[in-house]
Design goal:
Number of strands: 0
Shape: globular
CATH superfamily of the largest domain: MFS general substrate transporter like domains
Number of helices: 11
CATH topology of the largest domain: Growth Hormone, Chain: A
Helix content: over 70%
Structural class: mainly alpha
CATH class of the largest domain: Mainly Alpha
Largest sheet: none
Amino acid sequence: MTWSEQTRDYLCLTLIGFLGAFSFTVVHPVLPLYVQSFHVPYEQVGAFFSAYALTWTVLQVYTGYLADRLGRKRIALIGLTIYAAFALLNYTSRNFTQLLLFRILQGVGLGLLGPAVLGLYVAFDITIPLAGKARGLSTSQIGVVLASYSLSFTLLQVPIGAYAERTDRRRLLASASFLSALFFFGLYAARGFLPLVFLMALLGITLGAVFIQATARAAEVVAEGTQVTSLAFFDSLIDLSFTVMPLIVGFTARFGETVPFLACTLFLASAGVLFQLTKE
């Protein structure tokens, strides 16, 4: 393959990744509200997201095998087609059962493409629209709140990675976890639009550091010769969070739309303690 062909393929794959992530996130400000419009309780809103996540999490186990048998390009095209078709059908649903079925089948398409978000992102991906609606935010304002996280995450992870190479990664992870816990508590207490934007932007920095640097830290501490198995197990636990977090959000939201942020506060504070306990 020539350099020009490699460049072309790289740019095409980058565009596919961008469009896939765009289609995955563009409906986030309204999707929880759309599910709720079928007059279902918060537990079923959480189950809706969990069923989708569980489908593509389980399917990823077989995606590599299918790609080797049928070709990566073919599997990616099949995945994109399935994802797009059932994304459209989501908005023709006449009841919650139809919506749940279409969303699960949409998860099949995403499972052929691979993960697009992380478990804790799913937590506020559901909670921000619900809490924003309860606080009188418009759909466009909810979109800005969610976008502030992604923007700060995108712009600052490279500088954070460069800094992590020159410092104690364990302490960086502990500090980022404790700060994330603080910012999640801030989301619980915040009432205005601008405080939510500011706190989500800060979470884009600190949670991004936790997600990315935790993987780098895991690669550092695993025993020689077991890296592939150990990191595969690490990644599978992250994938499991995609299924578990929406259920936790759905349950805790029964006690108030912002209560899930308190659960995230507890999770991140616990993560900070665990990072402190790991060896140098």
